[in-house]
Write a structure and sequence with these properties.
Order of helices and strands of chain A: EHEHEEHHHHHH
Radius of gyration of chain A: 17 Å
Mean pLDDT of chain A: 96
Helix content of chain A: 40-55%
Largest sheet of chain A: 4 strands, mixed
Oligomer: homodimer
């Protein structure tokens, strides 16, 4: 990376999307904000399902990272791997084989059991992005996934009784994934049960991180500007 | 790693499972066979859903890698990250930031659109592992995922018209994920359309790799021994 202040990377996303949040938080953790510009893809208008966007990401999901030469990287874990290996500390995806394995395991588990489960609930068992975007809904599937997410909240609570961070002793990509789940849970009004004290205590510590504070500040400012 | 021939790692899996295949192939690519022992978890008897196994992997999926000190690593991508960073070439998860990002993207896309989709089809819209294991089935979801997998086959065919491997110019974890999808497709008798010539040509090259040949040889020998 050179010193110029002009952005060398473009992220296609939507300002308050839970998956986009994972990458925005990673960008902030890696202190790469000055090298990134954001381009809006309006989820609520289904722009992520239009041919022009599907050409960038076959799966039709946000976010997508576009490099200066046009190279495209989709999928939060993949983008985080790229950014993490591009820039200096903190390390989000691990330094040793054991750290890498553990962080990838816990981040994937947080997706599978929690974040993706909440996303399925949103898209299948609630109005989601509205009838023009949600062309296929499977309510029973969505409700099963909501229940799966609730069970996972209890699992992560148990885990966080004996460790400071989701993947062990240090903050990592896996914490960001669970933060993304909290963001999505708030959007779908799926309450994290208050008796899960260790999970809530961990989340309170996460909210103290500048990267995550900056995300909430940005979202609130954008929403206030939109309402104007 | 030291030189002793006694195994230092245990992999809990089932011999011909498509997800276990991904890790077995990775072990062979990394030439770590002598350091790994395998313990059977009988999928057809639902052993992966029993409390003793769920204590090893909350998600109840195979495979799980157990290190000599008892540390557990689940999720194929995570196990592959661990093994890849433990041992020498070939590199399965990339060396540069761009390679890492691209390989993780393509492997995740191959899961999401192809391998996981075929798995959903198997578990939800076919008898799957049988009524005692498949406690919840959602046929409509399973059939949608089958169609998603068929679309993805055409996508990967198109991709492989202009590149030698799934993530670009070199063999990687992403190829192994698509090999896993071929293995699962054969189990569920979901034919890869013959007109997808580039995809079939790529697969024929994959079948020439010693790691993948060894997997098929092991499966055939095990099945022959079982039938005896």
């Amino acid at each position: 990376m050179n010193d110029t202040s002009s952005p060398q990377m473009t992220i296609h996303d939507w300002f308050n999307g839970p998956y986009p949040a994972r990458v925005r938080i990673a960008v902030a953790e890696k202190n790469l904000q000055a090298q990134v510009q954001f381009v809006s893809v309006n989820l609520w208008e289904g722009e992520h399902k239009e041919p022009s966007f599907l050409a960038k990401n076959y799966s039709g999901t946000l976010p997508v990272l576009e490099l200066a030469d046009g190279t495209l990287i989709a999928e939060c874990t993949a983008i985080t791997e790229y950014l993490d290996n591009l820039a200096g500390p903190p390390t989000l995806t691990g330094a040793t084989p054991l750290e890498k394995g553990t962080i990838h395991m816990m981040s994937r588990r947080a997706e599978l059991e929690l974040l993706d489960a909440i996303s399925f609930y949103f898209h299948h068992a609630t109005p989601g992005l509205g009838p023009e975007v949600e062309l296929y809904q499977n309510v029973d599937w969505g409700l099963r996934q909501r229940d799966r997410a609730l069970r996972a909240m209890a699992y992560f609570d148990e885990l966080l009784k004996t460790r400071a961070y989701v993947a062990g002793a240090a903050f990592s990509m896996a914490d960001i994934t669970v933060v993304g789940a909290f963001i999505f849970a708030a959007i779908v009004e799926l309450a994290v049960p208050m008796h899960l004290a260790a999970l809530h205590a961990w989340h309170a510590r996460m909210l103290e991180r500048p990267s995550i504070q900056a995300w909430y500040t940005m979202v609130e400012a954008t929403q206030a500007a939109t309402r104007r």
